[in-house]
Specification:
The protein is α+β, with helices and mostly antiparallel strands and 478 residues long. Helix content is 27%, strand content 22%. A hairpin with a 5-residue loop joins β8 (177-183) and β9 (189-193). The longest helix is centred in the first third of the chain and has 14 residues, at 67-80. It is globular, with a radius of gyration of 22 Å. Residues 1-14 have low confidence and may be disordered.
């Protein structure tokens, strides 16, 4: 077995040493979870992640059941000079959760969520999905800002900053983070918080997986639900100019409990959409009011729902957990995904018109353009308070290229890049790392702005050989 391991594509300065059969057996016996090789049952399932464009074959996969397994895996990879990849939920569009020829740490068995309703805190394992977290927290009508697809991993979302329906009200996901347990490149387990290793705590709040493997997160929880007023209002794309401008102006004075995201796409064959609209271009207002008084929410949302002549209005009170899963059918695994994103300090007429123009030439029915509202509580945090620097962004443009098979690659990638370039004049300099692909190295410094040099210094302290380079990489030498 030792001679069957291919050379890793490591970017670290350590030379790869092929493990001996005895060394592999000692490694296997040190683990509580299984060690998978290419011939092992379950190997292909473990290496398969959400984005079907990613098809990589690690030499070894450790399905970690606890922090001890992570420690053993990190030490083994370091000692043998192996490329290291870390899978939390396996949802990241860049595909960095899996590597070729190296060692993959799979945290998915570590999906525990423990809620303390009295203290309003939660301890969340590094493999937990949004659905795992929401299910447990909503038993007590508690939540934190998370993403919009329940199969997303909490870990990757958090390390990149994290935002969703609650962010105008409660900030980014990292703004609710109290502490984290981190396995460092040295193979040690340390606690990161405002009082313990505060430099590491600062860095993991937006700096991605550059600084270690987070095995457990502790969050401060907020009152939300159990029901929210939420749903979709759908208009023809021909009316998009007026609809989007009205939404932009409406949301400027709306309370922070009210959020509306805008999506331009072809209508899917959903049962609540009239059949004659299936496959036609539409603009979707996805809205959520998370305040306690849903009648007040209905009053606030009425002008937005009443504008124009919508094709569909399915806004109603529903469980928060249901709303968190409402878009899952459009974001399932197995499709090929190539994304680009830009931040904007305002939703300008130029950006609106550019998005509408490109929505008329969508390369695939699964591709869409998202204009995602943040601002509010997100912008009230200093850009230097955490590694996440783009606090001035009011809107995030997510160009979501998505199609069924490789035959769509050329058209989908080309269209996505053209819209990305066309949107540049209307964007700010920042970026959201969770929406970035691996062909954007030149944007990493700009993404972190004035925080970049501090991140480099912290990287040099905690990971001087760049063992954790399978990410939007911050190199320890700058």
């Amino acid at each position: 077995m030792g001679t069957s391991i291919p050379r890793s594509d490591s970017n670290s300065s350590t030379r790869m040493m092929t493990p001996t059969a005895d060394g592999l057996e000692r490694f296997r016996s040190s683990l509580h979870g299984p060690l998978l090789a290419p011939q092992s049952p379950g190997y292909d399932q473990a290496r398969t992640i959400w984005n079907a464009m990613i098809d990589r074959r690690p030499a070894l996969i450790v399905r970690c059941t606890d922090a001890t397994d992570v420690v053993q895996a990190v030490r083994f990879a370091r000692e043998h000079g192996m490329t290291l990849a870390v899978r939390g939920g396996g949802h990241n569009v860049a595909g960095t959760a899996v590597c070729d020829g190296g060692l993959m740490i799979d945290l998915s068995p570590m999906a525990q969520v423990q809620v303390d309703p009295d203290a309003r805190t939660a301890r969340v394992g590094g493999g937990a999905l949004l659905s795992d977290f929401d299910r447990e927290a909503q038993k007590h009508a508690l939540a934190i800002p998370l993403g919009i697809n329940s199969t997303t991993g909490v870990a990757g979302l958090t390390l990149g900053g994290g935002f969703g329906w609650l962010s105008r009200r409660y900030g980014l996901t990292i703004d609710s983070l109290l502490s984290a347990d981190v396995v460092t490149a040295a193979g040690d387990v340390v606690r990161a918080s405002e009082s313990e290793n505060p430099d590491l705590f600062w860095a993991i709040r937006g700096g991605g997986g550059n600084f270690g493997v987070v095995t457990s997160f502790e969050f401060r929880l907020h009152e939300v639900g159990p029901e929210v007023l939420s749903g979709l209002v759908i208009h023809p794309l021909d009316d998009a100019g007026g609809v989007i401008r009205f939404c932009r102006d409406f949301i400027r004075t709306a309370p922070e409990e009210m959020v509306c995201w805008i999506v331009l796409r072809k209508a899917p064959p959903a049962p609540f959409i009239p059949a004659e609209w299936h496959g036609r271009e539409i603009v979707v207002l996805a809205m959520c009011y998370s305040g306690k008084d849903l009648d007040e929410g209905a009053r606030i949302a009425a002008p937005l729902r009443g504008y124009g002549r919508p094709v569909v209005d399915v806004v109603a009170p529903q469980p928060y957990t249901a709303w968190q899963q409402a878009l899952d059918p459009l974001l399932g695994p197995g499709a090929r995904n190539y994304w680009k994103s830009r931040n904007a300090t305002e939703l300008s007429d130029g950006l609106i018109d550019t998005c509408i123009d490109f929505a008329r030439t969508l390369p695939d029915p699964q591709t869409d353009i998202g204009l995602l509202l943040v601002g509010g509580a997100v912008s009230r945090v200093s850009p230097t308070a955490t590694a996440y620097a783009s606090r001035d962004a009011e809107w995030v443009l997510n160009i979501h290229g998505r199609w069924a098979d490789h035959s769509g690659d050329d058209a989908g990638i080309s269209w996505t890049r053209r819209l990305f370039d066309a949107a540049a004049p209307f964007a700010s300099g920042g970026a959201y790392v969770n929406f970035m692909t691996l062909d954007e190295d030149e944007r990493i410094r700009a993404c972190y702005g004035e925080n970049y040099d501090r991140l480099v210094a912290i990287k040099a302290r905690w990971d001087p050989t760049n063992l954790f380079h399978g990410n939007q990489n911050i190199k320890p030498m700058g």
